[in-house]
Fold these 4 entries.
Entry 1:
Amino acid sequence: MHCRKAAGSSVAACLAPYLGPDDIHLGTWPEAFDQGVLPNRRARKDLLHPVAAASFVSRLMRRPGRLLARRHRIDALNGAQRLKYREVLGHSPEHAYAEQVRAAFPETWRDYFKFCFVRNPFDRAVSDYLWRIRKTANKTLTFAAFLDRLDRRDFTSRTIPRHFDNWPIYTVDNRIAVDFVGRFEHLNENLDQVFVRLGLDRPPLSRSKSMQRQGSYRDWYGKTERAQVERLFANEIRQFEYSF
């Protein structure tokens, strides 16, 4: 279960070499490609969906000079494939909520080993902010304004992620619904535990979307920002005893 800003893309890339031809892999095909894995049969078949197909062509034509570049085609597939699953898995299918996945794939949910990684919300909120302003090139939005829009559920700007709270990704009825919860703060150790449980050799972990930042996440906070994060992510803070 791919929680946001908790090394989920890197973890998915570690799993990518073991994908079967019909396994669903959403949102991290470029990271899989960096591990030497090409889109599987399921991903290519998903592009037959009318909305996904139209999106794929549109994404390709944004940079027509790179049509022959494999990485460009994989980037286009990565964005387009997700659209097939929005109806059953929500706006961001790669970050689908546990309840949605269980409803869409009940037998898989019952039989598979399910895991996720969580991260201190005070740290994650800063990481999310920096990632979103870089991704959307919105250099004018301050961290305080970012949190305020999260607080108000104001998604009118592309900079504000709709799936900003990881709690529903691995819980149902406010109870943890996965078999293992790893911590970003102990990423390598906990990921080793996952691969031991799966009986697989773990590929090297690449920090595919990591961003370097100076100083501590605490430097971004005043009293107002701290109170907002405590309120927005109260469930995770309480469950895992995270602190500022």
Entry 2:
Amino acid sequence: MLRKLVAITAWASIAFIAYATLSPIQARPKVLSADLEHIVAFAVTGLLFGLAYPRQFVRVCFIVLGSAVLLEYLQTLTLGRHGTLVDASEKIVGGALGIFAARATLYLWHRKRSLQSKS
């Protein structure tokens, strides 16, 4: 049940990022500096996808990192917006950090459970 909730949240985060990336600049939500927002947004998304789909590492990387590239490209086709390689790189780094954090969290959680079951 929890994994399903995390999966729904992961897909909602991609939808929100797509809205923020492709909407007119005036409608774009702004919380932090743009550079930090890119990294944090994709780190959270990578973490959520990594936790939701722990056995599908390649698919998670494709979804998270691929969406970073695709959304940045689509931004170049949107009037009043521009996609850049720097922004795409920030999003990729954030996504990779989130996926790594999910993998590390799951590894430590499984290790702790196996140690507890041996005691």
Entry 3:
Amino acid sequence: MRKSAVFLALFLIITSVALAQENMGARPIAMGGAFTGLADDVNAIFLNPAGIGYIRGEMASVSTKISEGKEYTLIGGVERTAIGSFGIGYIGASKPLESADDGVVYVDDGNKPVKELNQTLVLSYARELNDFMVVPRFMGRLSLGTNLKLSSMRVANAKGLSEPTGSAVNADVAAVFRPNDDLSWGFNLKNCFDRADAEDGSEDQSGMVAAFGVSGNVFDKTLTWSVEDRCMGVEWKPMGQGLALRMGKDGDYNTAGFGISISGFGIDYAYLEKEEKVHYVAVSIAIEREQKEADMRQAGLSLQ
């Protein structure tokens, strides 16, 4: 545990000063945003927290979205323990204000609001039920997870000073069911409760959003497909491991990208073909543990 904590802390501190992104990593973006059913890496923290219940070990990642005038940061880490998997994520976003001075007179230009800042802390937990329940293999595997999201909004002026404009608390409840090694179903009920407190004392209720997706593997796991609502994507590993080629469709927009992984260290790139072209880059580290305990747990208990 101490080794894992040090690994995650050092990785996040070193990489967070250099990179930035939105609420979706480079790999999900390259696959058209269809990740609720797949949810098999650290990106699951933000898209389907139940997926981290299947992660065997520790993972961490940082992503960046390259866009002029805007900054986005996505940082996530997962730690597996004897009582389940815990994840922590950070989403930071900033964008320029286009009409912040309507009808307002400022003493000097330094007091003029120029940028809107949004920050969200995501605390995740998931547990694969098969870890502590005797379940026959033919019944598949089920993981349940949840997110607690703490958000804050601020406005910054030209002097670099900022003032809070509101806060929000949200929660997600999710599940991932894998009937076998080649099929996965995912469900995420986002914003189960949503209360935002603004400076004027008002509350903002945005309501719940349900996401449902399905994913699978074919051709001896060299090709992965994923579908969710109007989003779909595929990932092909021509050499089995090490290199991944991706493409997808995010509604009306095409996506593409690739990933390179060497000894647990990975670099991912994604391209989103919007009116204004968007590029994504992610860096990740994964340390996986052996799965002997899972095999032993099922040995002699399966009904085939």
Entry 4:
Amino acid sequence: MLFITSIVDRPVQAKSGELLGKLEDLIVRMGDERYPPIAGLVVRDGRRRFFVPASQLQDLNGATRLSSSIVDVQSFVRRNGEVLLRRDVLDHQLIDITGRRIVRVNDVQLTRVDGIFRVVGVDISARALLRRLGPRTLAGRIVGRQIIDWSDVQYLATTAPVQLKVSYDRLAELNPVDLARIVDALSYRESAEIVAALDEETAAETLEEVSDERLADLLEGMDQERAADILEEMTPAAAADVLEDLDEEVAEQILSRMEPEEAADVQTHLAFDEDSAGRLMTTDFVSVPASATVGDALAAIRSMEEVPDPLLAVYVMAPDDPGALQGLVRLRNLILADPATPLAEVMDEDVPTVGPHDRAEDAARVLAEYNLLAVPVLDEETRKLLGIVTVDDALAVLLPDVWQRRGARGFAA
């Protein structure tokens, strides 16, 4: 195993033994390979810097030795797609996907596989810095490296001053909360780079968890069609909160680009105060007529293109007043009951409710006091079912510092 800090600034020798200069850097080209191969060397001879292809590299241990005595010493010109390990990776931040954190690279690990030198890991230990600051004679005596396999890190394309094609597919594997912490902790440019690489659903789930300030910056900085697509994937309540944090003109433009149905749901939530049950509620629930059976209710759920998440209960509507809540059937009771059982026999009629203009804290207290997973929200005048406030929504109110993401999270190793 080799480390880049132990080989840079060391002599580069031709096959004949002639000293060509000192090794300034190693070049890799990011691609689909798990461990990127070294593509070439940057050699410095005085003020001159020239490129040596990896095909001429014989050894890196100790002095860098080439397999040829003939070297083209034309000036090195950097090209798009090239990453310099010393300049662009060492001392820069990467994302540790397994550890779900941002780390600082204190050394880069290399090894030779079938005659090809490859990048295989990064050292993030504090002792790696000590090795670089101390005499080379002591470097081998210091133990305690903390190596992260290269396949478990995400390189950020904005780190390099040239255009790079970097895949961010593995970031989608992270929990949206963990990914949001990373987005918050990175610079705006790096955060925008990550969000731009995510699909709309993953981007929406992630942005629902980032700080308000970062979220507004990201949405105002991206293409409005893309912003509208992302908001369509959010819950209407979350999308409404987002739009209120944006510049008013920008918010209107994004809202106008959303699909009419999704835009209408968001506007419904915007009609209520930010700290009200109406803003907090979700309009995604299952309703069935009182004349239905348990089997009818289960069939209705199965036939839905998208089943509400979470699915906590089925809401039973009055037969003589469509939209008016008569009761609910908890999911547990629905599953255990015989399919032929009328809903009236397993329905709870004495259901606590709240109004859309009630404070969100009041809705949360109703959930806690009655040990509910969701509380219906009824129109004060018509008593129609407008939506439900779930226990998850209540936690966002009662535990804002834990459940919601406020402020930047800095957490690098």
